[in-house]
Specification:
The complex is a heterodimer.
Chain A lengths: L3 H19 L10 H16 L13 H12 L10 H18 L4 H4 L1 H13 L1 H6 L6 H21 L2 H17 L3 H16 L4 H10 L4 H10 L24 H5 L2 H18 L16 H10 L9 H7 L12 H16 L9 H20 L9 H21 L3 H28 L18 H13 L8 E4 L8 H4 L6 E4 L10 E4 L4 H8 L3 E10 L2 E8 H10 L7
Parallel strand pairs in A: 1-2, 1-3
Antiparallel strand pairs in A: 3-5, 4-5
Chain B lengths: L1 H37 L2 E3 L34 E3 L3 E2 L5 E4 L24 E3 L4 E19 L12 E5 L9 E5 L23 E17 L9 E3 L1 E7 L3
Antiparallel strand pairs in B: 1-2, 3-11, 4-6, 5-10, 6-9, 6-11, 7-8, 7-9
Classes of the chains: A mainly alpha, B alpha+beta.
């Protein structure tokens, strides 16, 4: 498939498919605690135009800024009126944007491989699920894709614009999540191992044009035929290229790095400083790794064995649940990685060096993320996306390895057919079992009944003389009471404690069951414990209501029909 | 004046504290001896059935206000000497005819969690009523709804009266209907998991002939109301 209109149509179709999985019913799942935290952080920007980077928690602000225009266009004027869908839409669009962004890799991965990768990105259950999640992971993966595409485009074209583009993407990665450093490390190591040497063509272009390399751009623009020029000639390191410009080449050697790094730092600084609303904020990034490293190595929370991600993504079969597996992507990725190393020239429109780079990069990311004891199911998306790109190349390699044209068609149909189960799993994960603990992507997910907390508070407020100004006290035994603040966002007077305060009484008191005894002692004369509400599986919320308010509230309730 | 008082209080505090502590310790140590020695109270003569399941449930059902299981045997209260189960083999009536089993099961003395030991009543709010035969001073009511599993019964309300229709002179000794869905008033008592210990309710010496127990289904797989045994403790006047 080399026809440009056909290729463009395929990309549009795949993007539409990605949107079909990402956009519908974005509010079907209650806000995860992390999503609620991010929504509350967004509120500072939305209402006060202020953002302060916190090196201990919350990661970077890119998704907050991505949500700004969407929330503005939603027509909501107050934070209290915003809904889960408003925020998730920003991430859903970022997730879908990864399909057209794959165009950056067309000249290196190959046209067909890009389309296969686009298909897998569109329907990967993990990619779909976390594209409907207001956390930073999908933004990090998306910007990493842009970074790799721009950086490799610079490597091939030597156009400084690509270096700047890579810088923008890198800046956005940094401003999205601190784990960007893992992607940089893996990419740097993979580059050293596989791609440090330039193709001979580039070397020839450098020699002939005095390090301008513009001839290569011409080649690229003529039809993506770079790899056809790759030959068995000895390869010359960029640093060792014969230069004609005297002292200038020594300066130019650092030019792209300087431009890319400079742009990255500026972009990262702008975001992390809240566009200069908190200029010193980004300084926190220098010691952000202290708490995160401590968390990564020592905390029992989120601690899992090295094979956790592999089991989660590629073979998850809890009792009473169908099998969850993205093994198709893993198998095709292995095929793609092996093919990249077995053959010097992989296809007509791809770059074997890039695929080898990609294979090593993905492998390193997988090792690093597996080695870190601290694991959350979304953190593995970075290497899963690397596998998706490789799987695209693997699918192409299988098709190309078959000589008769009918066999190629059969192979394509077989891979397409095998992909249907991925789409089915994506549907099942995001639209059927979206809060089910058997779903491997569901993690510390609040139960659907969590919305009842907000509903109960609203109902009580109607019976309270204070209305929405009614005081609510949330008293918990630790800071993990989220997403309660999100569901109480329409109230003006909500306080939070992590120990029983001297005066815990309020019209509505929500508490963790661990504090039942001391709170019952203090509240029993004036309050009634009206029942448990659900927060997370196995984590209920106790609701104490002032007796007078409770009596008023019960009087306002519609009476049940007589038997 | 106030500073002198403060100083005075401060000077005497250690001595006062010691005296109070000694008195409290002595009283605590002597109280059971005194009551037993005087011979007017004895531990409630309850014989518990065998437990049907091990451990205590950890997850509170959403919507309930179930209390946290004690995690240890319930303390046995002291009652006047001569206290017996007045409900044994007494007549039982109910709001509707039983769905399965007979009402006699409630006072037959068999409280084991075995098939055929519990009577089943229809769903929604139902009551059973025990006629003690005469008005007696009652100290405790002990009820086992269904302790084969750690289920939670809803709207458990226990009332005492000398009026068989429970119109006049009604005393409510237990009510965990916190939203008044049964229409008998808001109850502040907590729901609880059924265990072999049953639920002990303090009748506080109320004089009554009839005991009425309400419930409105449970967290069991079906919406039925169940009673395995009810014991009513008091000292017979005759």
């Amino acid at each position: 498939m080399t026809s440009r209109p056909l290729f463009a149509a395929a990309v549009v179709l795949l993007t539409a498919a990605a949107l079909c999985f990402r956009l519908p019913d974005l509010g079907n799942r209650p806000f995860h605690g992390d999503e609620a935290v991010h929504a509350v952080k967004f509120r500072e920007i939305w209402e006060h135009g202020y953002y302060a980077y916190d090196p201990n928690e919350f990661h970077g602000p890119t998704i907050y800024y991505a949500a700004l225009p969407i929330v503005a266009l939603s027509g909501h004027h107050r934070f209290a009126d915003t809904t889960e869908s408003d925020y998730r839409l920003a991430v859903a669009l970022i997730g879908a944007a990864m399909i057209p962004l794959l165009l950056l890799l067309r000249r290196f991965l190959g046209t067909q491989a890009v389309l296969w990768a686009g298909l897998f990105t569109a329907i990967s259950p993990a990619m779909v699920f976390y594209s409907r999640y207001f956390i930073q992971e999908m933004a990090l993966v998306c910007f990493t894709l842009a970074f790799l595409g721009c950086a490799w485009s610079y490597r091939r074209s030597r156009r400084i614009g690509w270096a700047a583009g890579a810088g923008i993407a890198a800046g956005l990665m940094i401003a999205s999540k601190e784990t960007a450093v893992i992607s940089f490390a893996a990419a740097g190591a993979a580059w050293l191992m596989t791609a440090r040497k330039l193709p001979a063509t580039v070397e020839r272009g450098v020699a002939e044009r005095g390090n301008e390399l513009t001839s290569l751009v011409g080649v690229a623009e003529r039809g993506n035929e770079l790899t056809s020029l790759v030959g068995p000639r000895p390869i010359v390191l960029p640093d060792e290229m014969p230069m004609t410009g005297g002292a200038a080449p020594r300066r130019r050697r650092w030019e792209p790095l300087f431009v890319g790094t400079g742009v990255a730092l500026v972009v990262a600084y702008l975001f992390l400083s809240g566009f200069l609303t908190h200029p010193a904020g980004p300084l926190g990034y220098f010691h952000t790794y202290t708490p995160w490293l401590r968390r990564a190595g020592s905390t029992e929370l989120h601690r899992f064995p090295w094979y956790h991600y592999l089991g989660l993504y590629f073979w998850h079969h809890p009792a009473g649940s169908p099998v969850w597996s993205e093994a198709l992507i893993l198998v095709l990725a292995v095929v793609g990685g092996v093919a990249a190393f077995l053959r010097n020239r992989t296809g007509e429109d791809d770059d074997p060096t890039f695929v080898r780079f990609l294979a090593v990069y993905t492998l390193l990311l997988t090792f690093i993320y597996s080695a870190i004891p601290y694991k959350t199911p979304w953190s593995g998306l970075s290497f899963l996306h690397g596998m998706i790109l490789l799987a695209g190349f693997g699918a192409t390699s299988i098709v190309r390895s078959l000589r008769p044209v009918p066999l190629k068609a059969v192979a394509r149909l077989a891979i397409l057919a095998a992909s249907v189960q991925l789409a089915w799993q994506a549907y099942r994960a995001s639209f059927v079992m979206y809060v089910d603990q058997k779903n491997p992507y569901v993690y510390a997910q609040p139960v659907p009944e969590v919305v009842e907390i907000g509903k109960m508070a609203e109902d009580l407020a109607k019976a309270s003389p204070q209305g929405k100004k009614m005081v609510i006290k949330v008293i918990w035994n630790d800071p993990y009471y989220w997403p309660i603040p999100w569901y109480l966002r329409r109230f003006d007077n909500v306080g939070y404690w992590t120990a029983v305060p001297p005066d815990p009484a309020a019209p509505l008191v929500l508490c963790s069951p661990e504090l039942d005894e001391p709170l019952t002692k203090k509240l029993d004369p004036t309050h009634i414990m009206t029942g448990f509400k659900g927060l997370r599986p196995g984590v209920p919320v106790e609701t104490f209501v002032d007796m007078k308010l409770w009596e008023r509230y019960l009087k306002t309730r519609p009476k049940p029909p007589p038997e | 004046m106030s500073s002198r008082l403060t100083a005075f209080t401060f000077r005497l505090r250690p001595a006062k504290l010691t005296a109070v502590c000694l008195l409290a310790a002595g009283a605590a140590a002597l109280t059971p001896i005194r009551t037993i020695a005087q011979g007017d109270t004895v531990p409630l003569p309850v014989v518990l059935p065998k437990p049907a399941f091990a451990g205590t449930p950890s997850n509170a059902p959403v919507g309930s206000n179930v209390e946290k299981p004690l995690g240890k045997p319930r303390p046995v209260p002291l009652v006047p000497k001569g206290t017996v189960n007045l409900a044994l083999h007494k007549k039982v009536t109910s709001s509707k005819a039983p769905f399965d089993g007979s009402l006699e099961l409630i006072t037959d003395g068999n409280k084991e969690a075995k098939p055929g030991t519990a009577v089943e009543l229809k769903p929604k709010l139902q009551w059973v009523q025990i006629d003690l035969g005469s008005s007696e001073k009652l100290y405790y009511v002990l009820v086992w709804h269904f302790h084969e599993q750690p289920v939670v019964f809803h709207d458990v309300i226990v009332q005492l009266s000398d009026d068989p229709n429970f119109v006049d002179g009604v005393t409510t000794i237990y009510n965990n209907d916190n939203d008044n869905s049964s229409g008998l008033g808001i109850g502040k008592d907590r729901e609880y998991f059924e265990t072999n210990e049953g639920r002990l309710m303090d009748a506080k010496g109320t004089k009554a002939r009839y005991v009425r127990l309400y419930s409105a289904g449970s967290t069991h797989t079906d919406p039925l109301n169940r009673y395995t045994e009810v014991e009513v403790y008091g000292v017979p006047s005759k």
